Amino acid sequence: MTPISLSDTDPAELAVDAIVVGLHATDGDSGGAGPLLAPGAESVAAAFEGQLARTFAQLGATGAPGEVTKLASLGTISAPVIAAVGLGPVPTDDEGGVAPDTLRKAAASAVRSLAGLTKVALAMPAPDGDEAAPALRAIAEGALLGTYRFAGYKTKPQAGRRDPVKAISLHVADAADKTAKAELKRAAVVTAAVARTRDWINTAPNDLRPPRFADEVAKAARDAGLDVEVLDEKALRKGGYGGILAVGMGSEAPPRLVRLAYHPSSAKGGRSRVASVALIGKGITFDTGGYAVKPAQGMWEMKSDMSGAAAVASTMIALATLKPKVSVTAYIPMAENMISGTAYRPGDVVTMYGGKRVEVLNTDAEGRMILADAIARAGEDSPDYLVETSTLTGGQVIALGKRIAGLMGDADLCERVRAAGERVGEPAWPMPLPDDVRKGMDSDVADISQVNAAMDRAGHMLQGGAFLREFVADGVPWAHIDIAGPSYHSGEPTGYWAKGGTGVPVRLLLDLIDDIAANG
Ligand code: BES
Ligand code: MN
Ligand code: ZN
User: Fold this and answer.
1) Can you give the pLDDT at residue 499?
2) What are phi and psi of 475, to 5 degrees?
3) CA geometry: angle at 269 spanning 268 and 272, to 5°?
């Protein structure tokens, strides 16, 4: 990962390759004021005798969020390049500063646009003291995510492709400030978890089939100091994991169930009983749809159908370093949904973990099959909270788009998940689980159907949630986060998203776990 440090040296005197300053938009009606420099850039502005904002305006800068404008400093300050990044309008007193997600996106856009340079310093607005924490966290995370790039598989270096920035420093009032140092450390761990998630998602699906994915997760988790257990197909058979086996045995690369556990050390005192959380993530390493085969166009994006698994595994690995006072156990089912003589078929009845029988109606609804087993298993630990995340339905994308995840489950827990998502810029929106959706899933032959055949595609996302609910142990508050849209970004890089896996909802999960550590 890219090193990041704090600096309280005058930004105008820093020996770096570029300085990033913030630029606010003003509305043109107020006397053609033009963009305004944001706090943090005072000494750089002084070196331009007060003409820096005007110079950027002459270059076309408006201060619109995410816009980056570069200027050669020609010896006015130590850094040869000044980059102004737009932060939108000047925040009002009520707003109390630029929104953290705006800062996060701006820092990322600026750092990405400076690829090819070695050292970059950011002199962006962060107030002093404890109030600075959210802004500093956001700027640090954004700057680090702006250096993300997937190594890829090219056999030759690409002409004109510039390497990501190699070192970042953040200008603060006091580089020895404890809060600031802690935020920087946390940002490094969190963004490493996001990058690890993205790398797994972006890996070609022939390179990350279930046995290999399980090995990689197990190795990384063991290195981090987590408890690790991997169930292979034999152990899954012995354990009665019918859902994972039904989906996974259509592939020559057999399925896995990975269990990771983090327990805080009790030696340091504190509360005698800490809360316990179960995390579950969908790990379909490739989703062809099975006999309900998907159309060829865009099928390649189904290499991202293990985004939930990658996010949960990376979250667990980050917890080993962040050490919150919560016990967290992850169950990560992994399978490849393929077509073959051993693949499952529509009409099959599958006995799931825990004994419920499911009538399969659509082999492309494979996520809920492997998740149901994992959810049922997790319930045996009687966790205080159960949070599951998956690229479960195309219906989520239709309903909420590519940015906002769908959220279903226990109302109070969903509200906490929603709030965590809002705090970190990984939005998730609550959805209902209506009775009629569940009723239509009554099966003629088994305990439950896998989908609501009568409704077909209506309420698709809700059908997924209603099915999963059946496997949650009584009395366990649970939340299902459908990330089909936000887990993968197919467009050009924007803000802290590169093309490909986004790492959603790693930052949400880590924030939620902090909330549970603080408030139970
Ligand atoms: N992995 C897909 C959902 C998906 C779609 C993720 C688009 C990301 C982008 C899932 O396994 C699936 O195929 N769902 C079906 C469910 C249906 C067959 C009940 C869907 O959404 O169409
Ligand atoms: Mn599918
Ligand atoms: Zn799938």
Assistant:
1) 98
2) 85, -5
3) 130
Q: Say if residue 118's pLDDT is above 70.
A: yes
Residues sharing a CB contact under 8 Å with residue 158, sequence separation 6 or more, in sequence order: none
Q: What is the 3-state secondary structure (H, E, C) of 404-426?
A: CEEEEECHHHHHHHHHHHHHHCC
What is the 120 CA–ligand 2 centroid distance (Å)?
43
Structural domains of the chain, with CATH: 4-147 (3.40.220.10), 191-519 (3.40.630.10)
Q: pTM of this prediction?
A: 0.97
Buried b (16+ CB within 10 A) or exposed e, 475-500: ebbbbbbbbbbbbbbeeebebbbbeb
8 Å CB contact between 291 and 345: yes
Average pLDDT of the chain is: 96
For residue 412, how many other CB atoms are within 10 A of its CB?
11
Q: Which ligand places an atom closest to the C-alpha of 490?
A: 1
Q: Packing angle between helix 178-202 and helix 506-519, nearest 10 degrees?
A: 140
Ligand 1, atom 13, residue with closest C-alpha:
364
What is Dmax (Cα atoms) for the chain? 81
In this structure, the residues whose C-beta lies within 6 A of any atom of ligand 1 are 287, 305, 362, 364-367, 391, 393-395, 397, 451, 460, 484
Q: How far apart are CA 232 and CA 344, in angstroms?
A: 19
Q: Which is nearest to 307 in space by CA: 390, 368, 364?
A: 390
Taking the centre of ligand 1 as the mean of its atom positions, its distance from the CA of residue 486, in whole angstroms, is: 14
8 Å CB contact between 223 and 343: no
Question: In the block, which residue shows the tokens 């990405």?
Answer: 112
> In a mutational test of the pocket of ligand 1, which residue from 300, 393, 460 has the highest number of ligand atoms less than 8 Å from its CB?
393
Nearest ligand 1 atom to alpha carbon 284: 1
The confidence band for 32, taking pLDDT boundaries of 50, 70 and 90, is: low
Question: Count of H helices and E strands in the chain?
Answer: 15, 21
Condensed to tens digits (0 to 9), the pLDDT of residues 34-65 reads: 999 999 999 999 999 999 999 999 999 999 99
Ligand 1: which of 288, 300, 303, 364 to mutate, judged by most atoms within 8 Å of the beta carbon?
364
**Predicted local confidence at residue 295, as pLDDT:** 98
Mean pLDDT computed over 196-219: 98
Count of CA atoms in the C-beta half-sphere (13 A) of 503: 27
